[in-house]
Amino acid sequence: MVNHMKIILRKINIFSLLIECISGQASLKKAFWIVYVLFGCIQFVIIECIFHFYFSGSFVTFEYHNQMTDQFITLAFPYLFISSMCVWVCGKNSWIEWNILSKCIVIIPLTLGAFHLTRLF
Questions:
Q1: Where are the domains of the chain?
Q2: What DSSP element (H or E) covers 99?
Q3: What are the two backbone dihedrals, phi and then psi, of residue 115, each rounded to the nearest 5 degrees?
Q4: pTM of the complete model
């Protein structure tokens, strides 16, 4: 089982994928679905577990505004920025329609997160 996992991890090679995306060499579907969506969901689960296990209370919900949601957005924003930049740069490797659609999809959460952070500081 352990050897099988090592083989899978060698094939994925996360760091080379991120380097490809940041430099704009990866396809748009890799940048969007793997880096932006999949890794973003994994990051969301990790931060959610940190808040759940290390802070009192239950899981963070976005129905109310408090200090925990501010910390959550502050922790999530750097990766959101980097993954949005990857999708933006890799958009040139696809059709113009997918390029524009992907840029519209990634700019909305990025803008909302930036406005939220500027309101905090």
A1: 2-120
A2: helix 96-120
A3: -65, -35
A4: 0.74
